[in-house]
Amino acid sequence: MTSLLEGAKKLVTRSSDVGARVDGLERAAAGARGRVDDAIVDDAAAVAARAASRLRLSADHTVVALAGATGSGKSSTFNALSGLELSAVGVRRPTTSWATACVWGKEGAEELLEWLGIPARHQVTRDSMLSAADEDAELRGVVLLDLPDHDSTEVSHHLEVDRLVQLADMLVWVLDPQKYADAAIHERFLRPLAGHRDVMLVVLNHIDTVPENRRASMVEDVRRLLEADGLAGVPVLPVSARHGWGVDELRGMVAKRVAEKKVTRSRLEADVRAAAERLQEATGTGKPPSLSKERVAALDDAFAEAAAVPTVVKAVEDSTRMRANRATGWPVTAWFSRLKPDPLKRLHLDLGSSGKELTGAARTSVPKATGVQQARVDTEVRALADQVGDGMAPSWAQAVRAASVSRLPDLGDRLDKAVASTDLGAEKIPAWAGLVKVLQYVLIISALVGAGWLALLAFGSYARLPEPPTPEVLAFPLPTLLLLGGVGLGLLLALVCRWLVALTARSRARKADKRLRDAISAVSQEMVVTPIQAELASYAEVRDGLATALR
């Protein structure tokens, strides 16, 4: 029980560091999915999942795998380290068909062995067979694996070696003096594991078969090859498993590393770092960019032109001027304006609820975007995507470009709907125009009264009737004053109102332009900016995850 508690404490401590790296790699892989080569993302996700699984297992046990080629003496080294004849030894052909495990201290290792996929018939508990041996205490916590030969002609052996090399906490490569420079092991295993030098040992077995005067130079040659593989500093031990030469030193080195309780963490860190570096190379190292306000504004302008916003704004101004002039103009001539078509109604805009029931709120008669306007939209979308993708890896920049145009096929309908649903504020005439309209009718009635009065006076004079007294105002006959004043003031009021109408029309046009551009900006945000921002958010998540994994 005490051992399990201590293991749990070590696991928590390890998880606080390595676990954060694993979580960062998981987030980076998830964010890069669909934007980076699937093989790289799958590899990163698999490494993260494998590391997370290992962290949940025994922290008191260290998996040490012996790997090597046919005839390298890997099984002899395994037997020498365990002190038992557990693996068959062959000379001419591979005899290790499946991995064999020797465990020092099996308590708590059951789940780990199950995770490693080692069948019970290939498991041996060392302390149950010779628990009094000094080496049992020295190697307590070791799970020693004897892997199949990596150069076996059996495909299943290759797969087993590849699988367990990924799962082992520590790797001991057993080389033969005659084949230590074989490209197969260097290109397939050693070079790809260049970042794992801290969890690796190299054993040059059968050293007894090498003339004594050549042994030192051969060991140096192995070190040189390892340095070329990126594994400078990896210990190289000359060993003769047959005669027991160097076995104690090898056992001591394994025991020391296991006792430090750093091997598992170092292996997981190396795996995570290697996968993160591959993913980083594919995603790029640039900082997450931000959208340029100038580029977004240029995109909004291009969308506004494509939606014929200037045409609609001009129609708002003309319609306001027409409606207000009709209301404030001299009634005798103002009715002529009704013969002119309303610019907004010609565009099927601002028709009220009854008009929208006939034409549909989402369709207008606004001119469609011309080829030049469409080309400008395409140019601005591409410029925005290129500005964002600058500094990103080509695959991610391509993902940004694809996102920027993913919704553009529906652009025409969305722009038309935005224009149709915008309140242009031109349906009602200004409040002051209503008062002027009443005043104009008062003046025209005054003029008619004056004209009628003068007509009666003229008829009476023609008929030789007695002339009735005519009121005067400031020495002007009242009928004449009513006629001239009604007509003159009506015309003057109409001229003054034309100036006020022009100001009102321009003011409403500015407000309509602001509302339309806000609506078009919302379409730009939805159709282009939001998809790009989603890519930027994913890129930022990947960069943050990789920074955590590589810290």
Automatic annotation (TrEMBL):
Domain Tr-type G positions: 113-257
Coiled-coil regions listed: none
UniProt key word Transmembrane helix: yes
Gene3D superfamilies to which the protein is assigned, alphabetical: P-loop containing nucleotide triphosphate hydrolases (3.40.50.300)
SUPFAM superfamilies xref list: P-loop containing nucleoside triphosphate hydrolases
Keyword list, A-Z: Membrane, Transmembrane, Transmembrane helix
Membrane-traversing stretches: 438-460, 480-501
PANTHER family xrefs: GTPASE ERA (PTHR42698), GTPASE ERA, MITOCHONDRIAL (PTHR42698:SF1)
Name of this chain's protein: 50S ribosome-binding GTPase
Native species: Nocardioides baculatus
